[in-house]
Structures are given as C-alpha cells and as structure tokens.
Amino acid sequence: MTRRTLKLDLPSEEETAQLGRTLARLAIKGDVILLRGQIGAGKSALARAFIRARLGAEVEVPSPTFTLVQTYDAGPVEIWHADLYRLGDPQEAVELGLLDAFETAICLVEWPDLLADLIPQDALDIRLEVARDSHVATLTFNDTWHEKLDTLHVGA
C-alpha cells in the first residue's frame, strides 16, 4: 500500500480551522483521522472546526481530555472525538469502543500513538507542528484518502 505525504502551511488559526472544515466535507462513515502534535499545535482546534462544520457553527465542542471520548450525532453517521493522552494501554481504547467506532463512525483521534498496531491502515494521519510564524500540517495517507485530498487547496 502506497503512503503519500502532503505538507500544508497554516499561517493562522483560521487556516487550521479551514483544514478542519474541508476535511469535514470529505469524511465519510469509517474514516479515521489521527491528530498528532505537541500540546498547543492545533489538534483540538482542527477537531472543533471539523465537528462544527458537520453540526453547525454554534455547537459546543468540549475537549475530550478528561472524558476521553465525546460523541456527536451527525445525522446518518456519528462523530467520535477521542483524546488518548491519559490512556496507558491499548486495551483501554478497545474498552472505550473505539475499534468498533472505526467501522461505524467518523473518528478524530488525538494522541493516537498508544493505539500502535490497532490504527487502521487507511487512516489519515495529520501531524501538526508549530513553525516560527505559523503551523505546518503534514498529512500522510494511502489510496483511500488520495482521491479525496486531490481537491484540497487549504494553505497550499
């Protein structure tokens, strides 16, 4: 399976939000989006913009840092927003129902490293990094996301 990489310069928080909104238009049931990066890199901001794009700009989108998972009814598909920072073992993610959600929902997963071998092969992997005057998003994906991302022009 061929993995591809796309780098996007996100010079403002609005550009990060636009990436989230664009991905929200592209994502379908069974899509898993991994959000990596240091604290403050924009993972939650991207997820919040994604969720609001699907549900409406006024919806409250709390961080799942303490609840571990927040779920949202987005019509025909549920959205799961997970933060695995506080988990100590991959089995805990299984107990949360995350593996089942990978098949039945759209999943946004912050701090996904804990999942290791449980990460779906067709997941979209986004690494957010803080550069000097902006943020950089590095998207890594396979053929499942390649066609969808051909239409992506955020920050490019």
Automatic annotation (TrEMBL):
Q: Might you name a Gene Ontology BP term for this protein?
A: tRNA threonylcarbamoyladenosine modification
Mind listing the GO molecular function terms for this protein?
A: ATP binding; metal ion binding; transferase activity
Q: Which GO terms describe its cellular component?
A: cytoplasm
| Localization (cell) | Cytoplasm
Q: Which family does it belong to?
A: Belongs to the TsaE family.
Matching SUPFAM superfamilies, A to Z? Answer: P-loop containing nucleoside triphosphate hydrolases (SSF52540)
Q: Which UniProt keywords apply?
A: ATP-binding, Cytoplasm, Magnesium, Metal-binding, Nucleotide-binding, Transferase, tRNA processing
Protein name, per record: tRNA threonylcarbamoyladenosine biosynthesis protein TsaE
Q: Read off the Pfam families from this record.
A: TsaE (PF02367)
Fetch the InterPro entries from UniProt.
P-loop_NTPase (IPR027417), T6A_TsaE (IPR003442)
Superkingdom of source? Bacteria
User: Per the record's keyword annotation, is Metal-binding included, yes or no?
Assistant: yes
